């Protein structure tokens, strides 16, 4: 090191991103870099905290963070309160966690960093079972670590495991049967899996898919040139700038309703054939689970509907108006995921079909159709299903 100061940066191998990290007196720069490059702990720990002054210096040296040294770099960052370095190490460990699991360095991770990784939605390419097994290895390395068992297990998403995985690999672990917190986690997973229809309204951090991105999806519709109804489900991948196919529906759909509750996609009604009169309307309802890329059928509507509006409001689905072979519909149905039932609620004063709708501020608005008015459904008593909820209705010219 020459001169008074240089910018010290940190760089992950196989990356071109330069990250400013810390600034220290020139007299100590060589000591830190000796550890980073030579893995010599004595050159770091032989100097007291008072010897290192953390400030904003500029140094153009690059520190390589690798699977072999990330744990020790993180330890140094934590010891000397190097916040930016610590954040970078967290990011590196999170991004490379699947590879880190196969090294001995994984077992050296401190509790705080392991808990951070296990709690993250950004953790990719690891199943929950793999995370559980790895965490058990970490806990069993040293007896005092077992004190962290319950805290770490809270970050494992047991409801996302299969029943076979829970029975064969999780329930066979001793502390999962003896620790009260762990027992409750297993009960939570069991209850969640035994009530598939209720899962959209049972969502929590442990039932959510590990993802930090949202995606635009398209479903069904008509290929206009051939007038063929599609059953395809596609997701737009922003990074690849392309549409990717997901599991298709069992039957094609056109003029159907789509809504989301708890990150489950519902497809309601519509028709399977191209028919502008709505005579081939259907009453079937399907739900898509993005965690497993699978469809399941739920309770059907009380009436066949097409050209209608569907909204999700406070954990319920509302199918409004539409038409079928019998004509235009003024009726409104509400789906309760807790009971897997559709129930009639107060109907509109006039039939509507081909209309638009949306939810805003806890209120569903319906507009258009041949009745050129705005219909407002207030939702004050929608969530209460002690009896039948009856929405009030107002027309706005």
TrEMBL record:
Domain BACK: 70-171
Alphabetized UniProt keyword annotations: Kelch repeat
SMART domains linked: BACK, Kelch
GO biological process: protein ubiquitination; regulation of cytokinesis
GO cellular component, as recorded: Cul3-RING ubiquitin ligase complex
Keyword Transport: no
This protein's name: BACK domain-containing protein
Organism whose genome encodes this protein: Muntiacus reevesi (Reeves' muntjac)
Source species taxonomy: Eukaryota, Metazoa, Chordata, Craniata, Vertebrata
